[in-house]
Design goal:
The model has no long low-confidence stretch (mean pLDDT 97). The chain is 27% helix and 24% strand. Strands 3, 4, 5, 6, 7, 14 and 15 form a 7-stranded mixed β-sheet that branches. Strands 10-9-8-11-12-13 form a 6-stranded parallel β-sheet, sandwiched between helices. The protein has 2 domains: 201 residues, Quinone Oxidoreductase, Chain A, domain 1; 136 residues, Rossmann fold (3-Layer(aba) Sandwich), CATH 3.40.50.720. It is α/β, with parallel strands linked by helices. Strand 12, helix 10 and strand 13 form a beta-alpha-beta unit. Helix 5 crosses helix 6.
Amino acid sequence: MKALVYHGPGKKTWEEKPRPKIQEDTDAIVKVVKTTICGTDLHIMKGDVSTVKEGRTLGHEGIGIIDEAGKAVKNFKKGDRVLISCITSCGTCEFCKKGMYSHCEHGGWVLGNTIDGTQAELVRIPFADTSLYHAPKEVNEDALVMLSDIFPTGFECGVLNGQVKPGDTVAIIGSGPIGLAALLTAQFYSPAEIIMVDADDERLKVARKLGATQTVRSRDGKVVEKVMELTGGRGVDVAIEAVGVPATFEICESIVGPGGHIANIGVFGEPVDLHMERLWSQNVTITTRLVDTVTTPMLLKSVEAGSLHPEQLITHHFKLNDIIKAYETFSHAKEEKALKVVLENR
């Protein structure tokens, strides 16, 4: 089979690899129908994720069809259409019982990290019964593939950790795919204002179409002043960091109001200054999280009901064997006006 293989920072190839095999009775082999590229994959390509070794097939998102199921798999059979979770969970360890699937003692974020991932024609899914979801036939496939990672991540790490509630003023720093997923899911809770911040005018335009009440262009270095002006000097109730660089986290520290929340989503590859000299007395809560995907069933129901449309974030479609071109497009998002790219294997 063919797969996208990582060969060290900046090096990747679309190459032939052995077909994955059932290793445990709880495994399933899935024929990938659609997958996508995540911002985390770009961090891997920069060398920011040390657990990813040379020779690894990348990717942790996708939908597909069960090609083979292990003898102990009870919920799925050959031919079933499935949504692949970016997080693998055994369902029985201490962390899984707490709903912290990302820290599963036998799984967690392993796909495209410590085991081969979904940017391939076939992928092995450990603990299939608790790491896959049945994909309803009537639901748009593009919407489904967005539920593997980006929407649970934006919702859990940003909206839920930020404790967004009716009447809140929310600022989301970063209007890329993950920030826009947070924007869409924050609207479940009817905040009074959602301020989107980004350097890219096109992304801010998309954010306005998707429900942002205010947008702030960040190129002039005056984001803090502008947000404070928009909030009458009070600051925001929830500041969601959706980029993963020190400058954007420091913006969140500067714009959060007393009693507010800073909810981090971004993947950081370098240290960040924590300005406790300002925050110590402000009753501010700072949260971090790796997505647990505990909300995937709820998000799936929202898509089925027509109240959530994740496919709105998809800007480009490619054939799976054009994945190198897709990476180039996604890596030059501003020039290509790219948000999410979907790769199809048919």
